[in-house]
Amino acid sequence: MKLKPLIAMSAVAALLLAGCSGTSGGDPTSGGTTKPTTGNTEGGGGVGTAALTIAKPDGAITTESHNPYLGDSSASKYAYGKVIFESLALVNPTGDLGTTPWLAESVEWNEDYTQLTVVPRKGVKWSDGTDFTADDVIFSYDMVKSGKLNDTSAHNITDIKADSDKVVITFGNSKFTSQARVLHHPIVPKHIWEKIADPNTDPLTGEGMAVGTGPYVLSNWSTESVTLTANPTYWGGEMAVPELHYVSYGDNAALTTALVSGEADWAQAFIPQIKDSYLAADENNQFLVSPTAGAGTLFMNLQTKPFNNKALREAIAWTVDRQAYVDIAREGASEPIWSVSGLGDLLKDEILPEYADKNYSVDVAKAKQILTDAGYTWKDEKLVDPDGEAVSFSISVPAGWSDWNTEQALIAEELKNGLGIDVKVDQPDWGGWDEARQTGTFQMIIHWLEDTGNAYGLYTSTMDPKWIVDDKAQFNFGRFNDPAVTKALDTYANAANEGDRAEALKVMETAFVENVPAIPLGAHPLLGEFNTRNYVGWPSTDDQYASGDPTQPGIVMVLTKLKTA
């Protein structure tokens, strides 16, 4: 299992400056210790003179708001809020999927993940000089419990209390599959926020309001850029990067130009022909692909022809080339998922022994045999179903999603050449696509998964009826429904012990293998473009202590590990 709760060493400042990562994945109910690892040995250390410009391709953001709880605030959209307001711990979405205590010296879950015990870090100050205490932790979560702050992450907190030097938070249901959401809740200063009438709307733009414990403090805000400077009293030590500039460009093309010219230093974006357009421009330019437990996935409408026949779904699973998806559609920015379990390499410890060596491949002969055995035939090289009707369907992805638009064309070609299926490539606008996926009026779509850092994400996304409310689906777009699987999903998410969770996994995984309700193509990655001209110590393929995506909570860990080049 994954998302292992850890207990940090007390000398965290030394740990951060030396470079740290969570422990390896394992039993998430067991304790552990965050151990210092060997940090980057390049560079001279100390404070640099160059700022880092962090860029996005989303156009200018015209409304100033530093509220970290609002998804549409400039702090959230630019993502600069993550270096001002910190959380109790950082859950790595890639690499070892480990948990590193941050504003907490330790975080520990009880056996069924309904209670979290936290030891707040000592010696931390807010950027206005006020001491950080357990009261700030209690206050930050109590806003959700009391209803003052909307519970957008479904924390369902029932109790918060101080216990000696600890804070104990109790939840109304297990948080095993949503540990990251709980632990990444921004911690804010009680002495400022208790005076805020409505934290759901306050933009936090008043003088002295954007106060955090993070490594950077707000210096200047404009619609063109946001500037932050290093927090001189940061508990984690002195930052090598003295200043951060956040800039948003009009589109990916403008962003790419900025990265190539050196105008921008750090970004997360899918850049077509990235080797030629970015990497070849400067040997210091780097591109990091960080696979996550999620996946780009083919969802099929299981309620109507042609996908109400499992044989067709299985045949397609033996025909679609996942490596082509990675190499051509994603231009290398992914990892193929071939396991019949649907789980990628990050979750290989959750693949049942009976499926450990069972993988799909491109095997058209096998696919045709499956179809023949199920009563399918061919006429004029076109596939005909058992009812005598030619098999055809559409695959839908919004226009402009270039990687998945390319995959649409690949799949259409693969299925036409291999199985004689006429596949229509449909590229509607977002609104039309969204309506079809929710109401079940599509035939096949490519979509992402709910990423929970474990097998539950795939199986709830593809087989859980809980996602269908008022006949509209947020996941499980194919509307798979098996009471035994539904029960197993609930057990996995709420089990009080690993034995029950393991038994539930058997039911879920077996059902997925036997029913082929969806077809994962490749790991959904977090992407990062950055350069090593002025700073080194970035995460790498060999050391994914965090992703290279500057919009993720792990940006604070990256910044603490950077050294002057």
Automatic annotation (TrEMBL):
Residues 100-461 form the Solute-binding protein family domain. Residues 1-26 form the signal peptide. GO terms for biological process: peptide transport. PROSITE patterns: PROKAR_LIPOPROTEIN (PS51257). InterPro entries: Peptide/Ni-bd (IPR030678), SBP_5 (IPR039424), SBP_5_dom (IPR000914). GO terms for molecular function: peptide transmembrane transporter activity. Residues 24-48 are annotated as: Disordered. It comes from the Bacteria. SUPFAM superfamilies: Periplasmic binding protein-like II (SSF53850). GO terms for cellular component: ATP-binding cassette (ABC) transporter complex; periplasmic space. Belongs to the bacterial solute-binding protein 5 family. This is ABC transporter substrate-binding protein. The lineage of its organism: Bacteria, Bacillati, Actinomycetota, Actinomycetes, Propionibacteriales.
